[in-house]
Amino acid sequence: MNSEEYYNLGKKFFEQKDYQQAVNYFEQIINLDKTKYSQDIIILTAYKNLGNDFYDRGYYDKALENYNKAIELNPDYALAYNNRGIIYYSEERLGKAIANFNKALVLDPNFTMAYNNKALAYHKRKWFKAAVKLYSKAIDLDPNYATAYFNRGITYHKKKFFDLAIKDYSKAIELKSNYLLAHFNRALVYTTILEIDKAIADYSKEIEINPISTISYHNRAALYSDRGQFREALQDFNKVIEIDPKNAMAYYNRSIVYKRAGQIDLANQDLDIAKRLDPKQYT
User: What's the rounded Cα separation, in Å, for the pair 114 and 47?
Assistant: First the structure.
């Protein structure tokens, strides 16, 4: 086959989202004339998407290999640097992650995702003030970037700027109503500042979106229990156990509710189950 035939076959597999086969054909022509294809967006995207596939499946080495090939083919491909940075971030290699995000931003100063990802690395290094500035830059460039609001909210939350955290979580929810983690984190802040009705409302919304969220049932049950709403607390702990019958903590905490409600036999039964499921924690 000639170069055009290899390219067309690669393009066909690319359109079918079979990026491995696409890359196999593209490599045949790259080896013949690298310069000619260094700017071809389909070939670059094939390497990037194959890297993404490997990343999603947890094969970081193979993901890096494909991002590296994209960068080797076109050293100005900002998206590949960003994605390579994500790999290094996932592996806790924060220096390399930041270097790749920086390179992406040199190539594309308006790359909002790279600002967000660099901020994540800064947050992990506990450079909170600098992280906030980067999230804010991403938001300035894209005021509808829900993820940047959410992540900035996490940094504010970490620094106990609760009003600012709530504001950012709320904005993320405004932009993306089914944002599970934003509802969950805002519930945590509301619990901390003792706005319990609002916390319960957020856990309820998350449960509505994700009916098998055991941690939301569990946390809502704890709030109900603290307020003496034992029936509601028991309903939520029952739901946790229905979803996850081996959840020792749910049995243990349900035993506490039973005890507070005066149902001692049921409390003792649950305590025994918790001990059997996790003897180190509850014996």
Answer: 19
At residue 127's C-alpha, the angle toward residues 122 and 132, to 5°, is 75
- The amino acid occupying position 116 is N
In angstroms, the CA 264 to CA 270 distance is 10
What is the per-residue pLDDT across 95-114, written as a single tens digit (0 to 9) for each?
Answer: 999 999 999 999 999 999 99
- What residue ranges of the chain have pLDDT lower than 70? 1-16, 19-39, 41
In the chain, what is the greatest distance between 2 CA atoms, to the nearest angstrom?
82
Can you give 175-239 as a three-state secondary structure string?
Answer: HCCCCHHHHHHHHHHHHHCCCHHHHHHHHHHHHHHCCCCHHHHHHHHHHHHHCCCHHHHHHHHHH
pLDDT of residue 107: 97
Provide the pLDDT for residue 241.
Answer: 97
Taking alpha carbons only, the member of 266, 267, 216 closest to residue 239 is: 216
CA distances from 189 to 157, 173, 199, 225, 270 (A): 7, 15, 8, 18, 30
What does R_g of the chain's alpha carbons equal in angstroms?
A: 25
Token duo for residue 146: 């829900």
The pLDDT value given to residue 46 = 74
- What confidence score (pLDDT) does residue 29 get? 63
CA nearest neighbour of 131 among 174, 108, 161: 161
Q: What does the alpha-carbon distance between residue 45 and residue 40 come to, in Å, rounded to a whole number?
A: 9
Contacts of 196 (CB under 8 A, 6+ apart): 190, 223, 226, 227
Quick one: tokens of 51?
């890297």
8 Cα distance to chain centroid:
36
**pLDDT mean across residues, the chain:** 90
